[in-house]
UniProtKB/TrEMBL annotation:
Keywords: NAD. InterPro entries: Glyco_hydro_4 (IPR001088), Glyco_hydro_4_C (IPR022616). This is 6-phospho-alpha-glucosidase. Pfam families: Glyco_hydro_4, Glyco_hydro_4C. Residues 196-416 form the Glycosyl hydrolase family 4 C-terminal domain.
Length: 447
């Protein structure tokens, strides 16, 4: 199998070492000759890069070249696959995205609701610039984008790069949920096949089968109803916040029994309860800063000091493996099936043509070949149209510099709805994002 060259943008991320371990574990699916880390935050990158270099020397002997750089040309020019995982404003701004809505009695979440909107407006310009930079140096690398809030970022990218067939937006949540399905069913995760539809962080599994055609869907619902549903991927299994999130699946299936929900639907279906999920001084960002981030950087220090990864507990996880299997399917034209985001164009026939839907597709060297879904029924259509209108209005607000469209977007978001609350939360979010958001023009009478 031909070896590929891979670049990770956001090399200083807390996920990078896990992705590298996943690359090592998956080296028979996606053999690599080169790995390059790229980050604009040179100090984070330096630490992860030095640890990565030791780790790869020990565990990836067939790799010919590893480097970390903040030089775009070195990172983007001569490479086949680019994983993108950036966070504009870092975890510091994530914390504000979560805290400010909570202050107004709303859901405080990095990708859902008012916080997700704030993060979206921050990420759009950076992502457009990044893809532009990559494409000016490399016209045919596969760009696999994990950057959040994927629904909003993906829509903006689709508007600016509508013909780029080698730019894919991906989320690991469906596969992280399937990892738990595979563990309760005691079935190999790669032998499971899902039917799924929705928008990013807003969708449902309609059926889960194995590749031999055995349908597990009803059994799975029963198992979730009769047991606690738990995260089982290593990255999240022991995390109380993720445990609480997975637990909520049972309630959702009790209330709405037709399909198996994406865990993110909890924020839209139980906004009152979820607005009280986390205390202001310990929202998810703070938990990640004190948890995963500390652990990763402490591990790096130990690896660098002892010049070895001995006694360090890092391993591959589904977050990394999913991206890698997708890359392998694209590069080696395997035409395997994955859940990804793509322009609707009639896949869900009664949803807008230009929505960015999350659905199963075959991936090969021509790009994405989605499966048709057809018509969806009223409940889902109503929810999805509403959520898509929210997403689209954010994009319009951004490109038209229009405050009122942002306000309209928030009114449509199920976690907000009330106009006075929306105005108040917008004011605070605007203040916190002064250095990041575009100019937003208001009509005279609303000033
Ligand atoms: C899942 C979602 C991602 C999100 C992440 C947050 O993986 O699919 O979109 O960024 O969770 O996890 P964290 O542990 O940082 O709260
Ligand atoms: Mn996601």
């Amino acid at each position: 199998m031909k070896k590929s060259k891979l670049t990770i943008v956001g090399g200083g991320s807390t996920y990078t070492l896990g992705i590298l371990m996943s690359l090592i574990e998956e080296s028979n699916h996606l053999p690599l000759s080169h790995i390059t880390l790229y980050d604009t935050d040179t100090s984070r990158q330096e630490k992860i890069g030095r640890a990565a270099s030791i780790l790869l020397k020990e565990h990836y002997p067939s790799l010919e070249n590893f480097k970390y750089t903040s030089n775009k040309k070195e990172a983007f020019k001569d490479t086949d696959i680019i994983f993108v995982q950036i966070r504009t404003g870092g975890l510091t701004m994530r914390e504000k995205d979560e805290q400010i809505p909570i202050k107004h009695g709303l859901v405080g979440q990095e990708t859902c609701g008012a916080g997700g909107m704030a993060y979206g407006l921050r990420s759009i310009p950076d992502m457009i610039q990044l893809v532009d930079d990559i494409r000016s140096l490399n016209s045919d690398a596969w760009i696999l984008n994990y950057t959040n809030p994927a629904a909003i970022v993906g829509l903006a990218l689709d508007k600016i790069f509508p013909d780029d067939k080698r730019l894919l937006n991906i989320c690991d949540m469906p596969i992280a949920i399937m990892k738990s399905y595979s563990d309760i069913l005691e079935e190999d995760i790669w032998n499971l096949e899902a039917d799924y539809f929705g928008l990013n962080h807003f969708g449902w599994f309609t059926s889960i089968r194995n590749k031999q055609g055995y349908d597990y869907t009803s059994q799975l619902k029963q198992l979730i109803l009769n047991n606690d549903f738990k995260p089982t991927d290593k990255l999240i299994a022991n995390d109380p916040s993720w445990q609480a999130t997975f637990k909520q699946a049972k309630q959702m299936i009790q209330d709405f029994n037709e399909y198996l929900p994406n865990t993110y639907l909890q924020y839209y279906l139980y906004p009152n309860e979820l607005s009280k999920k986390e205390p202001m001084d310990n929202t998810r960002a703070r938990q990640v800063i004190n948890g995963r981030e500390k652990e990763v950087f402490t591990d790096c220090d130990v690896i660098i000091n002892q010049n070895s990864t001995q006694n360090i507990d890092i391993s591959g996880d589904i977050h990394g493996i999913y991206m890698i299997r997708i890359a392998a399917s694209l590069v080696h034209h395997l035409k395997e099936r994955f859940i990804i985001m793509t322009r609707n164009e009639g896949i869900i026939s009664n949803l807008p043509y230009d929505a960015l839907v999350e659905v199963p597709a075959l991936l090969g060297n021509e790009g994405v070949e989605p499966f048709k879904i057809g018509e969806i029924s009223t409940f889902y259509k109503g929810l999805l149209e509403n959520q898509y209108a929210y997403e689209k209005l954010i994009i319009e607000a951004y490109f038209d510099n229009d405050y009122e469209k942002l306000l309209q977007a928030l009114i449509l978001n199920r976690t907000v709805i009330d106009t006075n609350k929306a105005k108040e939360v917008l004011k605070d979010l605007f203040e916190a994002n002064k250095d990041h958001w575009p100019v937003l023009n208001k009509r005279e009478e609303t000033l």
